[in-house]
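Re: that backbone. Tokens:
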């Protein structure tokens, strides 16, 4: 397993903060039509606190499609497998999360045909 950590150098102060994470995809291949292949490609992650960038890091690869069926999309806790060995399973954030907003860039938009093809290939490999 390969881990990438993107962290600020100072701990957060007490009180409310707006934390934003941006990921800029770096396509690594092109299809026959010249369109970038983005699934599993790496990129650059940027962490912002209260409107100021506090960290940036290169992420060589991302998950393309192969998540376990029992994994969950948790916010503020981790009910499935821990993302890192830096905390125990079932760990929970002890602060208060007021709002979470997800904004998917149009360049990374879902493509149903490619998604279905990838799932079919994965299913065949598992058989």
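Recovered sequence:
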């Amino acid at each position: 397993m390969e881990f990438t950590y993107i962290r600020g150098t100072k701990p957060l102060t007490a009180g409310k903060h707006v934390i934003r994470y941006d990921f800029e995809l770096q396509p690594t291949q092109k299809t026959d039509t010249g369109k970038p292949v983005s699934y599993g490609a790496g990129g650059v992650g940027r962490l912002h606190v209260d409107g100021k960038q506090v960290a940036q890091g290169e992420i060589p690869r991302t998950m393309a499609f192969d998540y376990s069926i029992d994994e969950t999309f948790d916010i503020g806790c981790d009910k499935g497998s821990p993302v890192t060995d830096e905390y125990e399973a079932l760990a929970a954030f002890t602060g208060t999360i007021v709002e979470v907003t997800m904004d998917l860039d149009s360049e990374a938009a879902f493509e149903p045909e490619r998604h279905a093809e990838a799932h079919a290939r994965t299913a065949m490999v598992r058989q």
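Residues 19-126 form one domain. Helices lie at 112-126.
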